[in-house]
Write a structure and sequence with these properties.
The chain is an all-alpha fold. The protein is built from 1 helix and no strands. The longest helix has about 30 residues. The N and C termini lie far apart (about 65 Å).
Length: about 45
């Protein structure tokens, strides 16, 4: 089966790559916030 560069399959792959690139910073930021909260970084006494 030939790869269709201008069809649905290539658009789907581009969208998956785009969403993957967006999810990496979100995961990193979320884990950083969770680590700060876990270590008790906020002292609201």
């Amino acid at each position: 089966m030939a790869y269709d560069w201008h069809g649905r399959r290539s658009r789907r792959i581009q969208m998956i790559k785009f969403l993957g690139a967006l999810s990496v910073p979100v995961i990193l930021l979320g884990s950083a916030i969770a680590a700060v909260e876990w270590m008790g970084g906020t002292s609201d006494d």
